[in-house]
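Lecture 7, part 2: worked example. A protein chain together with zinc ion.
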Amino acid sequence: MKTRSFKIFSVLVSLFLLVTAAFTATPVYAAKTKSQLQNEINQLRSEQKANQKKINSLKNDINKQQELKDAIMQQMALVSKEIDACNRQINEVNAKIAANKAEIKQKNAEIEKTKLAFKKRLRAIYMSNTNSNVQVLLGADDFAQFLELSQLTASVAAKDKKMIEEIVAAVKLLEEKQAENNTLLEEQMTIKNTIIQKQNALAEQNNEIQAIISKLNSSKGSLESANQTKDAQINQKYADMAEIDRASSGGGSIDYDGGPFLWPASGRISAYYKSNDSVHNGNHNGVDIAAPFGTKIMAISDGVVKEIRNSCPHNYGKRSNCCGNGYGNYVIIDHGKGSDGKIYVAWYAHMQSVAVSPGQTIKRGQIIGYVGSTGFSTGAHLHFGLKVNGGWVDPMSYYTKVK
Ligand SMILES: [Zn+2]
Ligand SMILES: [Zn+2]
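Predicted complex, written out as structure tokens:
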């Protein structure tokens, strides 16, 4: 009983593993038809369009915010100028205050000097006179009291008294001026504080707008990267579609021979002349020979190199035109007049690298480059085009035997 149920279990397990293996071994692209892939591409494209609409509207919002920000920056520049002017005035007033202070100090020193001379004279009077008023006067500490007392003193010389009074008046004037200066300074400080408050408010506004701009930019950035991801997905789906085309056009390598020309590269034909597949849509002016990167490409006949391009670095599958009008790195060889009197020129395109240079004489079978996927190419292949008397022809009509 126990053994039997284990057997059933293990059969189920191996069945499950078999089914799983069958599924995992199947390539993803084969699970979808070309029209399914095309529908998915269309869906992605419409999502991209919707995203682009949002991106454009975000760009608009960002520009508006940027304009606001610019206006605030201009105001901030003005305010900063106002503060500079304010500071200049404050410095002027401070200089006046300092000058006044120095003058007051000097005047006070003059008063002290006059007072000293006055006291000396009083002392001389005192020596010869026992006037009690003079004694009182000399004992006075406070200057105001001293003046008051001196007014009472008949012995004080009117000239000295007048001199001191003048100096005191001058000091009083200076002190009044100083009070005015202090008021001016306070006013300027008040103005400056008001401007600084304005400046702070502007800075705050500026920060708020910057935060909005950053937020808008990050929304825009994520939409843009979403669209880039969709681009990659679309490219992948096109590559999958091309792969389906290749798979349906037959398996292994087929080389053609027997005609007037040598077959240019070993590989399998992935698209014929005027192919109506999803990549070419009936506009194919040559034959595509799918082959691994680096496969040798040979001249189909003797000739002279007319033109080359060897500067496209984009050697990978893509569905966009990067270089050389879509041909990427290519070689054009003038194979000269055929026995029919017509001029034959061949195009060898999408090379990984070119092995010849313009004007070079070429022998039939000579290596002229290596298979790649430069230019508009979804995968490694040689695009082989043939012009007869300047017009594209189907190269296959010059190859008869299949080897
Ligand atoms: Zn390129
Ligand atoms: Zn082609």
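DSSP finds five helices and twelve strands in the chain. The first strand starts at residue 256 and ends at 257. Keep this in mind for problem set question 3.
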